[in-house]
Design brief:
alpha/beta, 2 domains
Length: 211
């Protein structure tokens, strides 16, 4: 690579420092620290590595852009190496400003999540929230898309502004058809983020996926 990750992150943060269009910086997506790609997990060592990385990179990013908060970018407290159980709080207990979880539960009535950063006095962000376009039926129709949009609206109404959700990211925008968790250009779910009653004073976004 032409430059290190730290140098790149610093350069990007400096370039966009103070830009009001940016909610906050995120260092990784679904951060974890296995011994190697698809390798084994030594949870204690992984948590220490993630905490060290998060603290160091937060300092670097804030030195370049002191105007924005920083998120590590985690899936939640289970499933990824280094953030299991109480290690989630340990990793976020340092310089990181924003905690995050991802949620693809199909039931919009599952109820609000607990704040994984309880006691740290840090905001919790739903960094990925998705419902399948077919809602488990196997076929995407105008009915399933309309129902999915309603699920998003109900879910946002129930969660956003609670202790466990100060931001909400719908996953994810697509210029193509609404398949899987994608929200296409004519999808009614895209209109949910334009409903003022659901988006104030907190924020609702529609993720743009590079995948």
């Amino acid at each position: 690579m032409p430059m290190t990750y730290a140098d790149y992150a610093s350069a990007v943060a400096q370039h966009y420092a103070g830009d009001s269009r940016i909610a906050f910086w995120q260092l990784m997506n679904e951060a974890e620290a296995e011994d190697s790609k698809a390798g084994t997990c030594e949870e204690h060592a992984a948590a220490a590595a993630l905490r060290s990385f998060a603290d160091r990179m937060t300092a670097i990013v804030k030195a370049a852009d002191p105007y924005h908060l920083v998120s590590l970018g985690t899936i939640g407290d289970g499933g990824h190496c280094g953030v299991a159980g109480s290690d989630y709080q340990f990793v976020h207990g340092g310089a990181i400003d924003v905690c995050e979880y991802h949620d693809y539960l199909a039931d919009p009535q599952a109820g609000p999540r607990v704040n994984l950063c309880a006691g740290l006095q840090k905001p919790m962000f739903a960094g990925e929230r998705g419902f399948s376009a077919d809602l488990g039926t196997g076929v995407v129709t105008s009915t399933t898309l309309a129902r999915r949009a309603r699920y998003f609206a109900e879910d946002i109404q129930a969660r956003l502004g609670t202790d466990a959700c100060q931001g909400y990211l719908i996953w994810s925008w697509s210029e193509g058809a609404s398949v899987s968790f994608d929200v296409g250009t004519s999808d009614p779910a895209a209109g949910v983020i334009r409903q003022p009653a659901l988006t104030s004073p907190e924020a609702v976004y529609l993720a743009v996926s590079a995948q």
